[in-house]
Amino acid sequence: MQKIWKMAEPVSVDLQARFPELNQIVLQLLVNRGLTTQAVIDGFLSPDYMTDLHDPFLFSQMDKAVKRILSAIEAQEHIMVYGDYDADGVTSTAVMIEALTALGATHLDRYIPYRETEGYGLNPVAVKKIADDGVTLVITVDCGITGGAEIDILNAQNVDVIITDHHHAPVSLPKAYAIINQNVPGEPYPFKDLTGVGVAFKVAQALVARHASCKVTQLAEGFEKWLLDLVAIGTIADIQPLLGENRVFATYGLVVINRTRRIGLQKLLASLNNKTNHIDERVVGWQIVPRLNAAGRLNHASTAYELLTTQDETEATRLSQELSQTNQERQQITEKIRDEARKQIGTFKDQNILIVVGEEWPTGIVGLVAGKIADEFHRPTLVISRFKGEIIGSARSIAEFNVIEAIEQCADFLKKFGGHPQAAGFTIDGEEGLQQFIQK
Q1: For residues 291-320, b (16+ Cβ closer than 10 Å) or e, as one string?
Q2: Secondary structure class of 388 (helix, strand, coil)
Q3: How do residues 9-55 score in pLDDT, each as one tens digit?
Q4: What is the pTM (predicted TM-score) of this model?
Q5: Contacts of 156 (CB under 8 A, 6+ apart)
Q6: Which residues contact 371 (CB under 8 A, 6 or more apart)?
């Protein structure tokens, strides 16, 4: 495929004069990324935990959410943390569970749906069981913003729901007790690129800030900083820009990872082919994250969650080995499906969006295949699978095209959808809906 190279404009003489201390190549790279002011460049090159993180109470409903959570812990209510099956979702779940446990929550459970049978986010069967089990507070992490119907079910059973999410918000917001999502229209929180685990951490920060006056377990100073290994993993996994707060999370989180207290993470790190013995963002992105994601792609994400939270050394070793084996299997399946998908594509020189449809392609793999094809052809790519009676797809895009907005325009043909500008998932309403979806 022919590529067109577009060279960035050279740094101006004026800008060079303003930053004489910077190597010219470094300055050019900064400018290419739109970083041209002293404050922004300082934040990029030397992120500071104390000064570069925003007050979590800048979220418009954070105060309301924190009061409800702390009162639930004081009253020993039954709390459910409802997560997601990818690395961002699993780390989000672990962050929230660890924060609530440390504060003294004893009647606490977590629920991570099974990708192949339940799909993404809240679902009617799960929420009915949650209500029947006597849960009075549900806290979603990395999901929930598109779960309006399920939240209505919970509300009818007197179950409060606090949504913590970062995905694209629908036109009609769920009737939750509180919503913590920087991408809700009108939300004043200044940093819009937080991941699911980033939002969960902001809630943890807020709980730490307000817990001293409540009848909950009092935390040691700096407790939340030991959560940053999880925050860094989830942030890097979700491929959000490593700018602003995300850069702080990645920078300080890598410090924590290199001295992590988590037995499971220690075992996983020891098993990697890492000759330097130093864990950087490449090791996280290319070795840790794929193993955590593999659990939810082929089996159940609970394996990844348990690895991150176990305190048993034997169990940690077993889980680390299982995740590595599952990841090898995932790699083989991904390549097989990629080859099948690519045969449908041909050259596609004149098509702006690539769409392929397969039979019984595992739903946990189609997103990976879409990403590989989008990278190869530099086109928004949708990979769709007829899988166990459903028609499920995953989209990956390029910087110039907002794929979730495009998918939203096809909502009439979909059962559900959600995601980001560059990555999304969706379920199509039948064969007729599939044809209409492709044509539109």
Answers
A1: bbbbbbbbbbbbbbbbbbbbeeeeebbbbb
A2: coil
A3: 899 999 999 999 999 999 999 999 899 999 999 999 999 999 999 99
A4: 0.91
A5: none
A6: 381, 396, 423
